[in-house]
Amino acid sequence: MLSSRGDGRNAAIANFMFCTGIENSIPTIQNGRIRVDQMETCGHYERWREDFDLVEELGIHFLRYGPPIHRTFLGPDKFDWEFSDLAFAELKRRDITPIVDLCHFGVPDWLGDFQNPDFSMQFANYAGAFADRYPWVQLYTPVNEMFICAVFSAKYGWWNEQLTTDLGFVTALKHIVKANVLAMIEILKRRSDAIFVQSESSEYFHADSPAAIGPAEIMNARRFLSLDLNYGRRVDSEMYEFLMDCGMTKEEYHFFLHHRLKQHCILGNDYYRTNEHRVHPNGHTEAAGEVFGYSEITRQYYERYRLPVMHTETNLVEGPTGQEAVQWLWKEWANVLRLRNVGIPTVGFTWYSLTDQVDWDTALREQNGNVNALGLYDLDRKIRNVGRAYKQLIADWRDVLPASSVCLVVPIVPPSQAGGAHARDQERDADRFKEGEEGQASSPELGP
């Protein structure tokens, strides 16, 4: 097991990352006329210090967080870092480790949308500029939910380019994943021990009847495309034909095979009750609810990629009893413990997000102002029942997991120790992390 140096607190947080997030989604809708900015809608631009207070109140030391790209990346080599400087300086002062989310479902107006072939290189330049400005940052999610971003933007016609074709989907996908790979390259040039936490949706498609088996098999193969390309894994033959038929060239495909950065990555995956789908013979899908659940679907992804796992998103609306989200938190946590108990290296858990969200009941396709009670806190920054439950869960398990479970320890340098001798020690640990990405050992049963 990789060792963790430093004081007791740093040793604990390096073993397991309890996390939340402040969402910076910015897709455009209505043919680009309207920008949906969750940070603005949820009041973060005005209340960001208060939001960081809430993170600390929960006992959380890891935060999925990033600057709003449309306000920060103003043109080629043109940046406005004012808000980012304030926010990241405060995170560093508080010793909160950010997992930096650089692109969340949208691009600046000047880049258009994900059909633009210039997006990949321009985004890589942005990632490099960010890493230059904040050299103490180690953890990144360059592009959030690459698969969902491509599907919602170019297959379902909901966001950004609002296309509904396989050609549009593959074009968006190849540009998005290439942007992610190039961004990792640029960040690694500046921070050799950088670690990339992919936050990707984990999906499964259930055949409704024998006639639906074929469509379901295709969808279950397609769900892996973003990560296959990102990790330089050869896609299945049927998916290769699909990519070639929909505009990807052999040269573009070989780019992904030749830029294999898997050894720097954690397989971050997201799971909601909407992630499992019921497939009908005509290819129509509908939400199936929780059928297999997080642990089974994550096992499928882990067996494919053999990387350490982090549960990077989940939530559920607080219902009429006030306990629905609390029960979902317990269930997801039980699934995380199950993965660890069967020897799958699982290094973190996230309730997403810190506060309630707005208009996710229509997947941000409409601006109705509907507050979705999904957060650990409401938009008045009053703690919800699930926030209390998560705070207690963290207090109960923070010191137990490292003591009673032999599993991978991620070589993280907290902001307070970036640049010192500790960083050099952790960089050596990072090399061991890359070499031993499949390293794991059996552990005693934990929890429910």
From TrEMBL:
Signal peptide: none annotated. Residues 416-448 are annotated as: Disordered. InterPro entries: GH (IPR017853), Glyco_hydro_1 (IPR001360), Glycosyl_Hydrolase_39 (IPR051923). Residues 422-437 have a biased composition (Basic and acidic residues). It comes from the Bacteria. This is Family 1 glycosylhydrolase.
